[in-house]
């Protein structure tokens, strides 16, 4: 019966180690600092800067491809798609903001 107690002790040790690992993981995840809340204005400005950067990157890649400096069509197509999608999303957000503005302006006071 000594074998059983050794096996039980090993199992309990393994469970203790596992519990400590889970506890430390949970406590570490709870310690993460909260990101400060950004205003809508800051979020919008940051997003527009990113869209502008994507457009600039696309323009540079097109110029490099046209001048023969770069022959990577795959990267060029990816940059063009990213810039196109970013511009479409920006237009969609603009339309939603404008419709919300019009709706607010039509509210009776």
Taking all residues together, what is the mean pLDDT? 90
- How many β strands by DSSP? 0
Largest sheet: number of strands, sense, barrel closure:
none
- The helix fraction, in percent, is over 70%
The number of helices is 3
Tell me the strand percentage band.
Answer: under 5%
Q: Which structural class fits the helix and strand makeup? A: mainly alpha
In N-to-C order, the SSE pattern is HHH
Shape: flat
Task: Describe this protein with a few key phrases.
109 residues
In short:
This protein has 109 residues and is mostly helical.
Explain this structure:
With 109 residues, the protein is mostly helical. It has three helices and no strands. The longest helix has 33 residues, at 73-105.
List the helices and strands and how they pair.
Layout: H1 2-31, H2 40-67, H3 73-105
């Amino acid at each position: 019966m000594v074998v059983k107690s050794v096996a039980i002790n090993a199992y309990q040790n393994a469970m203790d180690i596992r519990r400590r690992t889970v506890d430390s993981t949970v406590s570490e995840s709870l310690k993460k600092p909260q990101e400060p809340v950004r205003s809508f204005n800051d979020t919008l400005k940051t997003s527009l800067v990113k869209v502008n950067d994507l457009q600039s990157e696309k323009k540079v890649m097109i110029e490099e491809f046209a001048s023969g400096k770069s022959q990577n069509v795959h990267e060029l197509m990816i940059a063009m798609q990213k810039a196109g999608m970013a511009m479409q999303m920006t237009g969609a957000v603009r339309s939603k903001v404008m419709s919300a503005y019009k709706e607010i302006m039509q509210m009776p006071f």
